[in-house]
């Protein structure tokens, strides 16, 4: 899941001219025509679904640092090679190793009830025998922030704000803050543990949504878990009786050391400018309860399949298409940050980029953060994507996605291809993130969009404005 | 969940006359008017939702024979008393005690995958360390029936038929047969274990549907469990690779003895004929993963609330309204059978009855198995229920529900009030059987129907034909 990019560019940067001036970047007519063919071919191409089926079936869940992490990297290397990529390699990424062994919980009093919950990333475990404490409840993160620590000390904090479904998934702003910042705030106020209503829009599923907390060191960690929505309802009903409510948490999880994984990279080598790259991708890791189909097997499949269509053209594109399967996005963009640190000095060589990490729903909107001289070329891309139902919003910046956002922060020109996320947060970070949630036609529409824009960028006469620190003004800060 | 009554009555029994003859049972005008008032009042009455909230919150899951079984009975006695019922008592029911301690499973090869599954009722546990065996797959129960035992011996049988949503829930015929008969057939053919695609219509939920098997003694039992629909998809995908697929089941469950629970009964005592009863109810036990809101807290709540509305009238009805909260329906109608055995000789005193056990969706159809002389009275009831959206189908028999079906089999005249079960099998026998699935307005519509017909039956001039063995011809056999 990527971070929303909320800052709007100054309108002056975004006003595009209808006709290109001599200084403008332009996509040649032949490239536009080929991109249209790629787009149309992609809609009938099953490669992405085949890749996604392979990943979710043959590897399945791939929690960063787990046994499946290595299996996923082996799978990615083999898949890139099988698809015919010209160059396949890995680059290491090191991060704290967090493991989940067991998790359970229950309301102890006034009425015993089993709780469906899941431990959150970087949560420490509870003491042997579990943690039993009274619950203190808040209906929002703001209420927790405002609370007197004396009311919290030694208790299990519960925060119960709800998320609603939206096409752009913006209520994840509520849910992710409750999950990332909430445990840290509770810990600082002396809480013994932390529970939240799952950051999910599935109001009626007895399935909890995991995800990372903001704990940055073991010292500040307290046991933290998410309740399924119906279990949060049940807890709130018990709280409604006006008697003390006691919960027992039994979590066996925590940081057990450090792990070195890797980003896995496949390239279609550029014919004219092999050192100039158009960057796409997704993240290879997933949370463990599901099989990581929508988060983010889809992004891996979309980008591999888009590059494969370009690979299958009669000749290589002018520039290199680089597909990056990032390591450990879920617990803090570790692969992305390692990548951006390693390649910061080459940022001008990254012509344009974005990864895909909001599921497998149709792309409905494209935004860009590029130099003014590249706006005409972006409009050319938008024209090719328009028949796919993709609107171009010239007033919004492109963030580059969750992982390539780190390169955008270094100065890479970036797109955002917004996917329809209406149901994404029903399944996100849960056991329900499985292949059956993916509509092959919608997945193919994504591939069509990625194949078309990637190819057009690779063939552009001119660049998109990538340079060190070029996009700091649109909020793309490190 | 009740058994569908599929046998149609001979049409000749069902043709009702528009006008009552002298020998016909008739509901007096005053009773019709009061029933209409009860119906309308019920639509704005929150008692059923309050009762259901209390049961699911204060007791929660109540697997027959578990600690919660006693708590549920205590709850029912207290609730009947609090609602002002004139008489509250229990009658024992004894049954095998089956317990569930732990369940897990995984595909071991060719690609390791965790499986979301749940053990089935009366399943024995696996040996210590689990049962690991190759899977042999069938796409229907018929295919399993036709299979050569040599292909099954020592393997884990998997049956993968799917259920679709229907208003009358008729695909449960597929699912329940696969769950009840399937394990027995597999066991007889020498299988080491049994797996089915959950008998549920939630094609995309990583939640398994439990339920009873047809094992009647420990000797024939083999470990048996249900996979969630997406896990069944995953297993089928692995089978599709054409390599041997091995599964490990680890079930700690089984029959550990015998238990004596009880049916809990509350009565509004009849003013004129206290010994003549109109019988309604539901079952108090539930499966353990959910909180038994739709199965069958709803039936308990509907029948308690309907009787309570009659209780609140200025004077008691002519006959007794008996609400029966049956014991252990889920593992074989144990409470119902104990009840019918005990009361078989009094069957003529049971004027008319049915319990509610298909969730909390709106009643959309009423059917009856009554004497021809009572058809006019049934039409009078149908007229009062019509504004609720309840159609009267004179060609279908009334089965009396899952539990009171046992009294119908003894000769009790019976109704069936069919509920809209479109989504019932999404949640049935799963952790998702929770209060949030119940629409208070739809629940109240059920109460309106039950209050109206129950009162009308209690005030009828004449009977409905109850007599020993009276309805054997409509399939109501013991």
UniProtKB/TrEMBL annotation, chains A, B:
InterPro entries: CPQ, Peptidase_M28. The keyword Metal-binding applies. This is Carboxypeptidase Q. Keywords: Carboxypeptidase, Endoplasmic reticulum, Glycoprotein, Golgi apparatus, Hydrolase, Lysosome, Metal-binding, Metalloprotease, Protease, Secreted, Signal, Zinc, Zymogen. Residues 1-22 form the signal peptide. Homodimer. The monomeric form is inactive while the homodimer is active. Residues 263-451 form the Peptidase M28 domain. Its main location: endoplasmic reticulum. It comes from the Bacteria. It is found in: Endoplasmic reticulum; Golgi apparatus; Lysosome; Secreted.
């Amino acid at each position: 899941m990527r971070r929303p990019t909320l800052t709007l560019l100054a309108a002056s940067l975004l006003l595009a001219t209808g006709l290109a001036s001599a200084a403008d970047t332009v996509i040649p007519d032949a490239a536009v025509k080929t991109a249209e063919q790629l787009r149309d071919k992609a809609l009938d191409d099953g490669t992405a679904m085949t890749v996604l089926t392979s990943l979710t079936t043959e590897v399945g869940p791939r929690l960063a640092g787990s046994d499946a992490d290595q299996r996923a990297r082996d799978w990615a290397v083999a898949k890139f090679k099988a698809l015919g990529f010209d160059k396949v390699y890995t680059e290491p990424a090191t991060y704290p190793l967090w493991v989940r062994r067991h998790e359970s919980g229950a309301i102890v009093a006034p009425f015993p009830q089993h709780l469906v919950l899941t431990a959150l990333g970087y949560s420490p475990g509870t003491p042997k025998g579990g943690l039993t404490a009274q619950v203190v409840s808040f209906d929002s993160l703001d209420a927790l922030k405002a609370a007197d620590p004396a009311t919290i000390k030694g208790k299990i904090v519960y925060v119960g704000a709800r998320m609603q479904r939206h096409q752009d998934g913006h209520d994840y702003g509520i849910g992710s803050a409750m999950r990332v910042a909430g445990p840290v705030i509770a810990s600082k106020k002396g809480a013994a543990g932390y529970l939240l209503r799952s950051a999910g829009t599935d109001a009626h599923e007895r399935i909890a949504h995991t995800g990372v907390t903001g704990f940055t060191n073991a010292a500040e960690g307290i046991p933290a878990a998410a309740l399924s929505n119906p279990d949060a309802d049940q807890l709130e009903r018990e709280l409604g009786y006006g008697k003390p409510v006691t919960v027992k948490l039994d979590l066996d999880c925590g940081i057990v050391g450090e792990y070195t994984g890797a980003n896995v990279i496949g390239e279609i080598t550029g014919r004219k400018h092999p050192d100039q790259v158009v960057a796409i991708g997704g993240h290879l890791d997933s949370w463990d309860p599901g099989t990581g189909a929508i988060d983010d097997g889809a992004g891996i499949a979309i980008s591999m399949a888009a590059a494969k269509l370009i690979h299958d053209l009669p000749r290589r594109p002018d520039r290199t298409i680089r597909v990056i399967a990032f390591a450990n996005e879920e617990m803090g963009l570790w692969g992305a940050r390692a990548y951006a640190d390693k390649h910061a000095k080459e940022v001008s060589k990254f012509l344009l980029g974005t990864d895909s990490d909001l599921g497998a729903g149709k792309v409905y909107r494209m935004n860009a953060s590029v130099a003014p001289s590249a706006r005409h070329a972006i409009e050319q891309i938008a024209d090719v994507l328009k028949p796919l139902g993709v609107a171009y919003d010239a007033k919004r910046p492109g963030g580059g996605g969750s992982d390539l956002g780190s390169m955008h922060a270094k100065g890479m020109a970036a797109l955002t291809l917004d996917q329809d996320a209406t149901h994404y947060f029903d399944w996100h970070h849960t056991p329900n993130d499985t292949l059956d949630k993916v509509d092959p036609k919608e997945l193919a529409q994504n591939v069509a969009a990625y194949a078309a824009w990637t190819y057009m960028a690779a063939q552009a006469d001119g660049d998109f404005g990538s340079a060190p620190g070029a996009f700091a003004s649109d909020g793309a800060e490190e």
